[in-house]
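Course assignment 3, question 2. Fill in each field.
Student: A.L.
Task: Predict the tertiary structure for the chain below.
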Amino acid sequence: MYVPHCKYDIFISYAHVDDLPFPGSSAGHARGWVTTFVGCLKTRLAQKLGRSDAYSLWMDHEMESWPYISQQLLSNIRDSASLVVVLSPGYVASPWCQRERNAFLALLEEHVARPVFLVERERVEDEFPAELMDRKIFRFWVQEREGKAPRILGVPCPDPADHEYYNQIDDLCQDIATNLKRLRGAGGAVTALAASSPSSLAPAMAPRGRVYLAQVTDDLDLQRNSVKRYLEQAGVEVLPATWYSQDPKIFRAHAEQDLERCDLFVQLISETAGKRPEDLPQGYPQFQLELALATDKPILQWRNPTLDCAAIEDKAHQAFLTATTVRSEGLEDFKGEILRRLVTPPVTHGLKKSVYVFVDMESADRPFAEQICDILDRYGAEYVLPVQSDNPTENRHDLEQNLVECDALIVIYGSATKTWVRGQLQEARKSVALRKTPLRALAVFEGPPEEKAPLDMKIQGMQVLDHRKGINEHQVRQFLDSLVVAEAGS
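Answer field:
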């Protein structure tokens, strides 16, 4: 045993039906899912603790043979330092598993607090045991196709190329090892450890920061796990540490508590809007964003750069995907941006004097232009949009005034025609003679739709920035950086 005064360090609770080998399995693959899983767990845990005999593990291969829990089994449960529950529809439906689980959880209601680790072998959804709702979950299934059943990792046997299966094994073993080491250091005084409280897993040293990594739709589980591992390896504490109850009131209470502690709200979103129950019509992704906005936390969102937002029929979800806080880039780049934000939060660029940006656009591109303006405002830049009245003379006067007075010019090339954009650039070129100081920056921001004719035009100092698949805030920041350089040289 590893933890003093405990007969077993780990007790495995599972449903017999989840350990049945698939018919026709070859001799080398005749073991059931749970037995194979426990074998992997034993190997990895031995590596983390130093020896294969460093700890003791109990797994009952003759379970459910009796209608009641024997005194011997009850004693084994009571004398175990931790519990690993293999959750599945079969586990939830099993009276035996429920009795076994309740026997262990009864200890938590007394004076003894012990860690409980949840392994969700198969999606449980609404059948999730309420008494386990606030525990950390290691999910061994992935939703790869919308509308189809999730794929269970390791079925019928683990594939060496299935990195997610082994990633989850590694994450689980890391948490188990951390808990066992703490219990061992406490001399087996399990009362000193909160009941599987993930906060007890926090490193002894202060974290580099705290990130609220929003819960995601099923299709993004793998990406969320990848971001979570990256941040934790970098010394960042990731919240929430447990899986929230899906009851909106309970969800809100837990989320607000975690958001209050975090430095940055991070969210991964996709074309899947997720479930929208009657008592939460906006859905959980939008709900979490609303809570973050209410707490005034910095927000950083990600979507796949290959996602065609214009093809999203749900206009509310389309707007959600194209918000100014959403970055459309590779996931690895996004991970790096999270750490950069923690080190240097997005504030104004510290310009010696205010910067006045003219964002020139056609009326059809106004929503896109307004999103750009929101980012400019957030970074401390002033901006102006063109007057668009029924009076051509008034519009012309406003254009000429803006071109002369602005420090920087952005021309939006979204739904506007090539001819219109070229005309605005020609006007900017003519205004040079009327300006008191040179224009510090000029850029054409290409917005959606993706297909558009090339401008076949380049004037001095002009940048062309691609935002056809959605606004790339990093490029907007680079544009502002060019103003800093221009100011320094003036």
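Instructor remarks: The two ends are 71 Å apart (CA to CA). The first helix runs from residue 33 to 49.
Grade: pending
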